[in-house]
Amino acid sequence: MERLLEIKNLKTSFFTHVGEVKAVRGVSFHLDKGEALGIVGESGSGKSITMMSVMRLLADNGKIVDGEIWFNGRDLVKLSENEMQKIRGNEIGMIFQDPMTSLNPVLTIGDQLTEPLLKHKKMPKDKAIERAIEMLRLVGIPSPEKRIKQYPHEFSGGMRQRVMIAMALINEPKLLIADEPTTALDVTIQAQILELMKELKQKINTSIILITHDLGVVADVCNRINVMYGGLIVETGRTTDIFYNPKHPYTWGRLRSVPNPKTLVKERLKPIDGQPPDLLKPPAGCPFAPRCDYAMRVCMTHMPPLFEVGEQHKAACWLNHPDAPKVEAPVGRRHV
């Protein structure tokens, strides 16, 4: 497989009046062309900040402190803002979390869809409108010739999210980043949006990074999953590895808090007790140790490396050390 994106030891911090918040603390992973990767974790785990670092869209007090972001042979960290503007919306498309606020309420859908074509492709206006109508049709919006003249408030939440997907894909980017694309949508619309992303991936062959707090969302769309916690990747592997053979207690906890639709006996869901780590003062050891039922003394003082636990499967947990006590994962096989 040809590599499209490679992130090496990324560290991103926010400098506040109370100190440096180390939001991303040394993240490394890759994405191949045509692949779909899921990044899963609870709020504050660093998943969205990792992708905002890739897009170079951090808040004014945010800074990439260290690391490299190689995209299509170039290190994005070293590019100027002008060079990044040529990549955003052109080579990398992004669907933001909230379709209700991501569209400009005073511009028609057509104006917003054609802007990337006029800016990056220098396409004539009539050709840009044709392409915009074609994209609306592709994402399943009925009567696109009529809808293109309407404003965002005339669309439902699900339709707005389809417009956002059309906008992100209109220039046929090499990479699509979807940040919680099903947030605030009901379950039926969520399923439609995820099915749409799978179809578009096959039609356009765009690589996808899907960011979510919900493991169920990535099960059907992604080839591989990175599980993030406390600004770090704590487990990474193929989707089947993460669901059927998880090796990190945090992943176990996330799986136990997700209902299994295939089980005949209703199981009580078990939440993960405790609070996420304070990234103003990150812990010396494993960030999950204070909430972990299996924590040992070493977990409190030393951050575990990413142990190889299978082919393309790694987990940052001391339980995977050869000398560690053997612990049976408290989650059964997940039917996904």
UniProtKB/TrEMBL annotation:
<dbReference type="InterPro" id="IPR013563">
    <property type="entry name" value="Oligopep_ABC_C"/>
</dbReference>
<protein>
    <submittedName>
        <fullName>Oligopeptide transport system ATP-binding protein</fullName>
    </submittedName>
</protein>
<keyword id="KW-0813">Transport</keyword>
<keyword id="KW-0547">Nucleotide-binding</keyword>
<dbReference type="Pfam" id="PF08352">
    <property type="entry name" value="oligo_HPY"/>
</dbReference>
<dbReference type="InterPro" id="IPR017871">
    <property type="entry name" value="ABC_transporter-like_CS"/>
</dbReference>
<keyword id="KW-0472">Membrane</keyword>
<keyword id="KW-1003">Cell membrane</keyword>
<dbReference type="GO" id="GO:0005886">
    <property type="term" value="C:plasma membrane"/>
</dbReference>
<dbReference type="GO" id="GO:0016887">
    <property type="term" value="F:ATP hydrolysis activity"/>
</dbReference>
<keyword id="KW-0067">ATP-binding</keyword>
<dbReference type="GO" id="GO:0005524">
    <property type="term" value="F:ATP binding"/>
</dbReference>
<dbReference type="InterPro" id="IPR050388">
    <property type="entry name" value="ABC_Ni/Peptide_Import"/>
</dbReference>
<dbReference type="InterPro" id="IPR027417">
    <property type="entry name" value="P-loop_NTPase"/>
</dbReference>
<dbReference type="InterPro" id="IPR003439">
    <property type="entry name" value="ABC_transporter-like_ATP-bd"/>
</dbReference>
<dbReference type="GO" id="GO:0015833">
    <property type="term" value="P:peptide transport"/>
</dbReference>
<dbReference type="InterPro" id="IPR003593">
    <property type="entry name" value="AAA+_ATPase"/>
</dbReference>
<dbReference type="Pfam" id="PF00005">
    <property type="entry name" value="ABC_tran"/>
</dbReference>
<feature type="domain" description="ABC transporter">
    <location>
        <begin position="5"/>
        <end position="255"/>
    </location>
</feature>
<comment type="similarity">
    <text>Belongs to the ABC transporter superfamily.</text>
</comment>
